[in-house]
């Protein structure tokens, strides 16, 4: 037999249940293959982003130096920044830096974090005064992590009970209720919800802070907006996969085999429903989350990656935009890799 | 009723609550089952057999509902009890095994732990460890090989037959008084089905269980049941002791059912009328291996040897049969013959020209002469095209006809295969499986091919429809002197339509014989095993007790050295392990078998 687990493997010290559930060779092969594929994807994405940023209109040097700068100064600064070199050469230089952990310096932001574009630098640019992109991202990342984590947590808090309830009562009122809730949530624009929540809970009631970040309470309102945005997709996915699994032959047969309906639900239906849910996460929810964060952080002036990106785009701050794009690509690749790995832990038939 | 009956059903009726005016699904069904007896329930699909079987385990799902009747289990009417009381019997006193073993368990949890879970649920005194040991012992008892490893395997790693064994274990671990077996051999190959029946008979004696055995195959029911109920349209039309009912059927429907069971040895072997000795198709030592990922070796590959050095000639105008069980490589062979794939080694010659030497344009032209018809009547024709367009499409692809001439040809072929010409502008939705296969056949015949490959083309059809299409093919064969290659697992069918037959086992042709010799002499022990396992009503020349096999074919990844059949062959000798035998002629008509034991020495 080729089931992969040697005798007594379930007691394997370090890998424990993983060893039993899935062949080691499979796991190694999986990660080697997926990391290599992921590297190719990130490389291509970063090149496309890098090149596109440099062909769109808007000269960053003009923004750095301000409208008063002479064209000679602009050319000099552009030369100095390497912005007049062919794109592949610029990209090569950038990749060489990234490999050493250097994502370059912001064009605009000073070491202290303030935006300096357009006034002080009309004589030229001294990159040493500018904040390293890596530091900017690392400062913003924890805030975004809190917001994204909170948003997903709240979304699951809404979607799991509603979705499971609907799935267990397919075709009856809970199913319709879930549909109405999802339709309502999906038709509310996140900008509008954000503004309404700020108005109700901050301005009127004064219960929650809305702008900036000085503590966990500042993440609550934006997290609610995120949760409302992504929960409809989750509700539909959960209710569909729960009701499909309830209709699967193994469920009815489990009851006939003498197992209780509650046990079959807990042990088998929920387990099988987790796979499509995880795939949805990798394929769709993470994308929605990233998009949502830009808007939500902007509305709430929340100092995370989203706000950093939006400002950087307005300011043609190439180094920040390209670093964040790469970061997003890496995050998507990694999350999908783990989603697929854990899916195949649950369902051994899956082959990635 | 005698008081000691385990089960007594009286006047059971079930109706569809959404269709109150329609005839009930079950009407006034009564029967009883004595301890240790086997009651066979037989009927065609739609007779209500499965509804009845499920009702016996309180599995009547909306919109169906029990409208009247009693269901006594050990003297207690379970329908009068609260549902919890009935449900508490399930999996304990009354067990159920269904028709589809592969979807019966959660696909994501190992088989063993699901059976253990059931065991500890119904017997809470048992510890998990004891339960596990017990299940592994029972796995061994039902001859699941390497039981303790199999225990940790997932449902998809089991074959249908192995899974059905595991489910028999699952049903019988609690030593129930009544077992409902609902079509349990239906999806299995004949030798595996025969093994399952033998196993069930043994276990029944050990466990002293009464069995209600539902099946659509009269041969199978006769094989196992003491008493048979014949059902038609929800009603029991006749019941009685098996041998009496068979010898002296009263109801017309019973007579018809008995008549429909195909005779194998009683039937005249088929002969095509115009066979040209010159081969139209020659297969020369073809083999095909597929590469699969090896789950145990990083970036490792496993070679699945689907077809291993097959050679034979098909003569112009003859009907050639390829038979074998699941996984023997017969479908891969059909893909090689129809040039959907090319062989790794060897070649397929059509009128002396190798298919692999043809350019893609030549190959396209050649396809006019060689048509393939598949098994699934639903997915092999597009649902969005009219029947006329479906049949006309090949003519358009090959640019053969236009305008009126095209439609004349389409209509002619529709008439030939027995399709009503009114259907020409209809979509295939609403056509029966048999009519759909006629559309597929018409689509192939419209090109006037020289060779037809029928890959399990008639397997999805019921006996009556199958007989009609066989008559159609016999007719086509006579009129057009077309060459047909039937790829099938159905011995009764090849008996009725093929001149010569190749028997495949693990990617090799182990016997190549003419119809008469194969069925009466059979030079290979595997052929005899197949023939001994067919469920028929007539006397078989090969006894099940002598020839029936144990276990299942080895994995095509690890094919045993020497003769690939020797690991299951009851007659294997030392020489069989040394070298793979070649086909040797064993009788005057030129029939050949690949066996070292030799025709004379087989019992």
UniProtKB/TrEMBL annotation, chain B:
Keywords: ATP-binding, Nucleotide-binding, Transport. GO terms for biological process: peptide transport; transmembrane transport. One of its GO terms (molecular function) is ATP binding. Pfam families: ABC_tran, oligo_HPY. SUPFAM superfamilies: P-loop containing nucleoside triphosphate hydrolases. Residues 7-258, 281-531 form the ABC transporter domain. Gene3D superfamilies: P-loop containing nucleotide triphosphate hydrolases. Belongs to the ABC transporter superfamily. This is Dipeptide ABC transporter ATP-binding protein. It comes from Spiribacter salilacus.
């Amino acid at each position: 037999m080729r089931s992969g687990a040697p005798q007594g493997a379930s007691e394997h010290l370090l890998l424990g249940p993983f060893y039993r559930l899935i062949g080691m060779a499979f796991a190694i092969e999986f990660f080697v293959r997926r990391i290599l594929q992921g590297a190719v994807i990130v490389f291509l994405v970063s090149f496309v982003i890098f090149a596109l940023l440099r062909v769109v209109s808007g000269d960053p040097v003009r923004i750095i130096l301000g409208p008063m700068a002479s064209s000679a100064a602009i050319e000099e600064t552009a030369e100095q920044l390497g912005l007049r070199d062919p794109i592949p050469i610029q990209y090569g230089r950038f990749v060489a830096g990234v490999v050493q952990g250097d994502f370059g310096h912001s064009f605009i932001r000073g070491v202290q974090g303030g935006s300096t574009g357009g006034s002080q630098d009309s004589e030229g640019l001294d990159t040493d005064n500018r904040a390293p992109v890596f530091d900017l991202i690392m400062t913003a990342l924890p805030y975004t992590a809190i917001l994204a984590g909170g948003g997903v947590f709240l979304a699951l808090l809404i979607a799991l009970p509603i979705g499971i309830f609907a799935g267990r009562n397919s075709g009856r009122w809970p199913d319709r209720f879930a549909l109405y809730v999802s339709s309502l949530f999906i038709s509310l624009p996140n900008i509008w919800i954000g503004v309404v929540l700020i108005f109700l809970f901050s301005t009127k009631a004064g219960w929650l802070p809305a702008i900036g970040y000085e503590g966990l309470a500042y993440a609550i309102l934006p997290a609610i907006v995120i949760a409302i945005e992504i929960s409809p997709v989750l509700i539909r996915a959960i209710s569909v996969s729960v009701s499909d699994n309830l209709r699967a032959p193994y469920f009815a047969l489990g009851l006939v085999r003498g197992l209780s309906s509650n046990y079959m639900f807990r042990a088998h239906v929920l387990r099988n429903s987790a796979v499509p849910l995880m795939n949805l996460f990798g394929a769709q929810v993470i994308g929605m989350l990233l998009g949502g964060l830009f808007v939500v952080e902007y509305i709430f002036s929340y100092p995370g990656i989203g706000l950093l990106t939006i400002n950087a785009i307005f300011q043609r701050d190439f180094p920040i935009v390209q670093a964040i794009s790469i970061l997003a690509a890496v995050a998507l690749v990694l999350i999908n890799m783990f989603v697929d790995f854990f899916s195949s832990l649950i369902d051994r038939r899956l082959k990635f | 009723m005698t008081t000691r009956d385990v089960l007594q059903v009286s006047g059971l009726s079930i109706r569809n609550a959404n269709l109150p005016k329609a005839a009930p699904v079950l009407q006034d069904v009564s029967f009883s089952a004595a301890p240790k007896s086997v009651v066979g329930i037989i009927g065609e699909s739609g007779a209500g057999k499965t509804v009845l079987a499920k009702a016996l385990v309180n599995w009547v799902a909306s919109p169906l509902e029990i409208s009247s009747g009693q269901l006594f289990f050990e003297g207690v009417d379970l329908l009068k009890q609260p549902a919890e009381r009935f449900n508490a019997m399930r999996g304990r006193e009354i067990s159920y095994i269904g028709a589809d073993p592969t979807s019966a368990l959660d696909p994501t949890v190992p088989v063993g732990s699901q059976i253990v879970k059931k065991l500890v649920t119904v017997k809470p005194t048992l510890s998990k460890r004891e339960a596990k040991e017990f299940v592994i012992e029972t796995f061994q008892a039902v001859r699941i090989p390497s039981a303790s490893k199999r225990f940790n395997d997932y449902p998809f790693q089991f074959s249908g037959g192995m899974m059905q064994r595991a489910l028999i274990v699952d049903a019988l671990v609690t030593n129930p008084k009544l077992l409902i077996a609902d079509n349990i051999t239906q999806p299995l190959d004949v030798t595996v089905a025969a093994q399952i029946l033998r196993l069930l008979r043994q276990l029944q004696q050990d466990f002293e269980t009464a069995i209600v055995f539902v099946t659509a195959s009269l041969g199978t029911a006769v094989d196992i049941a003491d008493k048979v109920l014949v059902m038609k349209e929800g009603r029991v039309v006749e019941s009685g002791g098996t041998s009496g009912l068979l010898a002296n059927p009263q109801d017309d429907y019973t007579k018809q059912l008995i008549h429909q069971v195909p005779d194998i040895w009683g039937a005249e072997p088929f002969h095509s009328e115009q066979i040209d000795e010159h081969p139209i198709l020659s297969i020369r030592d073809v083999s095909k291996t597929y590469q699969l990922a090896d789950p145990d070796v990083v970036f490792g590959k496993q070679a699945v040897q689907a077809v291993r050095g097959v050679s034979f000639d098909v003569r112009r105008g003859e009907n050639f049969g390829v038979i074998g069980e699941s996984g023997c490589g017969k479908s891969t062979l059909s893909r090689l013959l129809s040039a959907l794939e090319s062989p790794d080694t060897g070649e397929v010659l059509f009128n002396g020209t190798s298919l692999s030497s043809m350019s893609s344009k030549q190959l396209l032209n050649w396809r006019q002469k060689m048509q393939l018809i598949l098994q699934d009547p639903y997915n092999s024709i597009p649902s969005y095209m009219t029947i006329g367009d479906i049949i006309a499409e090949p003519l358009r692809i090959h640019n053969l006809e236009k305008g009126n001439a095209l439609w004349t040809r389409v209509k002619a072929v529709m008439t030939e295969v027995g399709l009503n010409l009114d259907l020409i502008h209809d979509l295939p939705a609403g056509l029966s499986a048999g009519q759909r296969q006629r559309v597929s056949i018409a689509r192939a015949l419209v090109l006037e091919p020289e060779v037809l490959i029928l890959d399990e083309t008639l397997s999805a059809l019921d006996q009556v429809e199958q007989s009609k299409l066989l008559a159609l093919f016999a007719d086509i064969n006579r009129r057009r002197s077309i060459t047909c290659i039937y790829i099938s697992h159905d011995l009764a069918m090849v008996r009725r339509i093929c001149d010569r037959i190749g028997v495949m086992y693990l990617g090799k042709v182990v016997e190549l014989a003419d119809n008469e010799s194969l069925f009466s002499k059979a030079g290979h022990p595997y052929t005899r095993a197949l023939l001994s396992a067919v469920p028929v009503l007539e006397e078989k020349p090969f006894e099940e007790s002598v020839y029936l096999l144990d276990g299942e074919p080895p994995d095509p990844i690890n094919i045993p050295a020497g003769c690939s059949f020797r690991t299951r062959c009851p007659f294997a000798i030392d020489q069989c392990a040394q070298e793979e035998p070649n086909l040797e002629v064993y009788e005057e008509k030129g029939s050949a078998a690949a066996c070292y034991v030799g025709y004379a020495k087989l019992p």
